[in-house]
Amino acid sequence: MRNADLIARDLKSVWHPCTQMKDHESLPLIPIKQARGVWLEDFENNRYIDAISSWWVNLFGHANPRINGAIRDQIEKLEHVILAGCTHEPVVNLSERLVEVTPEGLNKCFYADNGSSAIEAALKMSYHYWKNHGKPSKKNFVNLSNSYHGETLGALALGDVALYKDTYQPLLMEVLTAPSPDAYNKEAGETDEAYALRQFEAMDRLLAEKHDEICAVVVEPLIQCAGGMRMHHPIYHTRLREACDRYGVHLIADEIAVGFGRTGTMFACEQSGITPDFMCLSKGLTAGYLPLSAVVTTDDVYNAFYDDYETLRAFLHSHSYTGNPIGCAVALATLDIFRDDDVINANRHLSRVMADSVAHLADHPNVGDIRQHGMTLAIEMVKDRKTKEAFPWQERRGIRVYQHALTRESLLRPLGNVVYFMPPYVINEEQIRHLAQVASEGIDIAVKD
Ligand SMILES: Cc1ncc(COP(=O)(O)O)c(C=O)c1O
Hints:
Elements: H1 3-13, E1 34-36, E2 39-41, E3 47-50, H2 53-56, H3 65-77, H4 89-101, E4 106-112, H5 115-132, E5 140-144, H6 153-158, H7 162-165, E6 176-178, H8 192-210, E7 214-219, E8 223-224, E9 230-231, H9 235-247, E10 250-254, E11 278-281, E12 293-298, H10 299-303, H11 325-340, H12 343-357, E13 367-373, E14 376-381, H13 397-407, E15 410-411, E16 418-421, H14 429-446
Parallel strand pairs: 3-15, 5-6, 5-7, 7-10, 10-11
Antiparallel strand pairs: 1-2, 2-3, 4-12, 8-9, 11-12, 13-14, 14-16
Helix pairs in contact: 3-11, 4-11, 8-9, 12-14, 13-14
Residues 114-116, 119, 148-150, 220, 225-226, 254, 256-257, 282 line the site of pyridoxal-5'-phosphate.
């Protein structure tokens, strides 16, 4: 098999996600034959460092022997069983472990099979909670500007990235939007913390005014990933938690992308010292192996649904593959690796190397910002460093970085003008420094006229 053979067959029958398929007339697909550790390999012995962890999911490398072993063991015992009326060891073990590792007070786990469906479940649970408490007028949700929560209609409605949302606007429920604490927009001389507190004032006013009609506020703690890896200070969520308590509104933390160590702590909420009412998890939950998601919530929420059947207060929501045993076994192996290898501490060193490796770009005339939370680092390319004027999106300069990186054994996939690294945690120093070098070269190429 040659690369070209698979590409030709692919284009006859596969429709790729988040892709203008016509782009593949000039941008060839990358056919991946196999992968190991941080390396993706094609059919002609080219290899690429997976700098974006295959859409932010992979944690411990491809073909990880411990996770492969967990799949082999589980598949011999039980591949799947309906989770309504039945239970199994992997789902019980995983629920116990998630209760243990998530912030204090999150005690019940509900499962789905991808990030968007976890968001949908949390939205329905929150609305239904208030209805069960005799408050059906609470039916609105609050989001932040530039947020992203997935592509199904409910999750898309909750997002605020025009590129994904505008086309479908007529199909979407209305939401209330508060301004993001995104530190990129702070005034010169203002700290991230001061900006987050200033931005919080609008959220506080919105909740004060409309809390009677609001079920929940939904946030991506610390990093708005799909919104361009925009970052903010944890104080925002500390204040938000207090305000949600004050006004009787749920707080839904979407940790689908940032959970499992991406921001330097196991969960981003830890840095704000808070427990949300719902924490949505996916992606790193299975270390990039299988589709699985969880909504972890409180006893208070669970108890609002617990009653005689005839009261019709139950959460009658399901997916066929809810709590899939192989997915749960992989998630358990993932949590074992976190514990046994002290991963969060080990990552501190890698984050420092990441910061150090791009420090030389700080004065680059076309770099408007370098930002980092733990194992996620982003570099914002701008037309003018002083004014932060952006390159027009139509110029698609990020693609030039992507194309250059492929010639240098690296898969970087900029979000618009934002080049970022969100690598598997098995990456080593030398590989990080290589990525930084490739990104610098790519940026120099991309900013030329
Ligand atoms: C913060 C956040 N929420 C939700 C989702 C949706 O997850 P999925 O793609 O698994 O539906 C994503 C996906 O990137 C995400 O980044």
